Amino acid sequence: MPSTEPDVEPLDGRLTRLRQQVETAEASLRRLKLQVQETENQVEVKRQTQQAQISNASLSEQTKRASDSLRKSPRDEITLVNTAGCDSPSPRWPLTAAEYQRYGRQMIMPEVGLEGQLRLRKAKVLIVGVGGLGCPAAVYLAGAGVGTLGLMDGDTVELSNLHRQVAHATTRVGMSKVESAFQYLQSLNAEVSYVRHDFHLSPEQAISIFEQYDLVLDCTDHPTSRYLISDACVLTGKSLVSASALKTEGQLIVLNEPPLRPGNLSGGPCYRCIFPKPPSAESVLSCGEGGILGPVVGVMGVLQALEAIKILTKQRHEPAETSASVEAQPVKASLLMFSAYSNPQFRTVRLRSRRADCAACSTHRTISADSLSSGSLDYVAFCGRTAPVNVLPSESRISAREFSQLAQDSSNVLIDVRDKTQYAICALPGSTNVPWTGNADSWLAKAQQSGALDHAQNQKYIVCRFGNDSQLAAKAILERPEQTSDVKDVTNGFQAWREEVDSSWPDY
After folding, report:
1. What is the pLDDT of residues 407-437, one digit of tens each?
2. 3 state SS of 81
3. Could you tell me if 398 and 375 lie in one domain?
4. 402 and 277: one domain?
5. How far apart are CA 219 and CA 243, in angstroms?
6. Could you give the 3-state DSSP secondary structure of residue 424?
C-alpha cells in the first residue's frame, strides 16, 4: 500500500528557494530606493544650481551696478531704497531685503562683503556626520547663508547625544539625525536648500555624491571614514575641512586646498599625505569609551564652519598648471590643536606638503575612481578592526546573574578595575578599586599595594565596565606563581549587571 505521508523534502527545497527569492527581491528593492533617493537629491541640487546661476549671472557685474546706483542723485537713492523692500533680487539689488538684514553684520566686514555673500549663496557644502562636530558646523553655515547644505548620517538621535549635539532635542530622540537636524536648521534659516542623505557614506556612493558639492566637511569620528572621505575629495577635486575631538582635546586640518589635480605639488596635501598609515585599531577610542566634553567638540565644529566660510568667500583664481620653467610652490597644511585644560589652549603644528608617493594624490597614486566606486577598496581592513577580548577559558568566567547570587562575605573579593572617575559614579558595596593600567606587571604592583591580592586563598572576582579590562586583570592574577585560589572575570561587566541584575544601574 503506498504511503500517504506528504513528501517533506521537496517542500523544504521549495520553501528555501522562495525565501531566497524574497531576500533577493528585498535587496533589489533597497537598492532601487537608494537610487531613487540619490537621484532626487541630484535633481534638487541641479535645480538649486540653475536658480543660483540665473540669479547670480555675474557677481562682479551686480556688485558694480549696486555701487554705481549709490553714486546717483539723492532722488535716485530714495527710489532705490524704496525698491529694496521687495522679496526677490533685482539687477540693482542682488540680494533680497530680508537677506540684507539677515546677513548684514557679516557683509559689512571686508573679509566677506557683498561678493563674498553672493559666493556663499551659490555654494554647496556637504557635512558628513551630523553629531557633535556636524551640528554646530551646520548651524553656523546655515546661519551664514550657504545656498545648499547637504546633511549625511545614518544614525538616530540618542539621549546620550544631547549634551553636545546641539541641533537635536529630547523630543526627537529616536529620530534620524539627518531629519532632526533638518528640522532645527529649517527653523533657523528656511532660505537654505537642505539635501538629506540619511545613510552612512560608502565607497560606492562617495564619488557621485561628492561631485554635487563644492566643499566637504568631515565630521565623523573614525579613521575608516576619514580615509574614505579624503580619497573621495581628491578624486572629485573638492577641498576638505576635517576635525576630531575626544575627551578635552580637539584637532582641525584643512586638506586638499587648493584642490589641484593629483601630482601637482602646488595642491594641498590629503589625509594620506599626513597620515600614510592608520593608527592601530586598539588605540582608537570612541566618545562612549573615552568620554567627551560638549564644549570641546562644539569649539571644533564651529572652527570647521569658520574655515569653510573662509574658503567659500575668498576670490578663486584658476590655478595655472606647473610647467618645467615654473617651480611649484608646495602648500603645507597646518594642524590646529586645542586642549581645554592647557595654557595656551591653542597651538599650531606645521605639517608636510603633498607626499610624492601618496597613494591618493601623487602621480603614482593607486587609488582611482573605479576602485572606489566598485567597492574593491576595503577601508575597514585597511584601518583594522578590534576583536573582542577573549583571553580566559569559560571556567574562569562568571555571569553577572551568577555573581549576584554568591554569598556576600569575606570569602569573596571583588576588584573593580575601572578608573577612579567611573568608580565614583557607581560601585558595588565592598568592592576594591584598582584601575587597570594597560600593563599586567604595573597593575599587579598596584593591586598588591592596595591589599586587594592579600589572602591568596580567597576567591577573587574581577569586574569592569564592558568585560574587557577585567579579563586582562584576571589573567594577570592567574599567572602569578603564588596564586592558589580561583579567579573569575564577570562576563560583560557592569553592562551585563544592569541588564541581568539591576536595571537601575546607571547607563553612562
Report:
1. 877 778 999 999 999 999 999 999 999 999 9
2. helix
3. no
4. no
5. 6
6. helix
Q: What is the mean pLDDT of residues 82-96?
A: 66
Question: Which CATH number covers residue 469?
Answer: 3.40.250.10
Domain that holds residue 427: 394-500
Q: Do 263 and 362 contact (CB within 8 A), yes or no?
A: yes
The tally of domains found in the chain comes to: 2
C-alpha 455/C-alpha 413 separation (Å) is 10
HEC secondary structure over 140-162: HHHHHCCCEEEEECCCECCHHHC
Give the CA radius of gyration of the chain.
Answer: 29
User: Per residue in 226-285, pLDDT tens?
Assistant: 999 999 999 999 999 999 999 999 999 999 999 999 989 889 999 999 999 999 888 888
Q: Say if residue 495's pLDDT is above 90.
A: yes
Q: Which residue reads 576602485 in cell numbers?
A: 371
Q: Helical H runs in 260-349?
A: 271-274, 287-290, 294-313
| pTM for this prediction | 0.77
Q: Is 219 a residue of the active site?
A: no
Does a structural domain hold residue 427?
Answer: yes
> What 8-state DSSP symbol labels residue 176?
B
pLDDT at 172 over 70: yes
Q: What is the mean pLDDT of residues 166-177?
A: 98
What are the DSSP calls for 74-99, one per residue? Answer: HHHHHHHHHHTTSSS--SS-SS-HHH
User: Is residue 269 located within the same domain as residue 405?
Assistant: no
Same domain, 371 and 422: no
Out of 219, 233, 383, 464, the active site residue is: 464
Q: Is 86 annotated to bind ligand?
A: no
In terms of domains, do 145 and 188 share one? yes
In the predicted structure, residue 86 carries a pLDDT above the cut 50? no
Catalytic residue among 135, 233, 287, 383: 287
132 is in an annotated binding site: yes
- The answer to whether 193 is annotated as binding is no
On whether the CB atoms of residues 226 and 220 are closer than 8 A, the answer is yes
* Residue 469 within a domain: yes
Nearest CA to 197 among 229, 235, 155, 159? Answer: 155
Taking residue 390's Cβ as centre, other Cβ atoms within 10 Å add up to: 10
Residue 135 annotated in active site? no
**Cβ atoms of residues 115 and 61 within 8 Å:** no
Q: Is the pLDDT of residue 6 over 70?
A: no
303 is in an annotated binding site: no
Which domain-ending residue is among 343, 360, 383?
Answer: 383
- At 21-52, the pLDDT tens digits run 777 777 677 667 767 766 776 666 566 556 54
Residues 220 and 362 in one domain: yes
Tell whether 379 and 407 lie within a shared domain: no
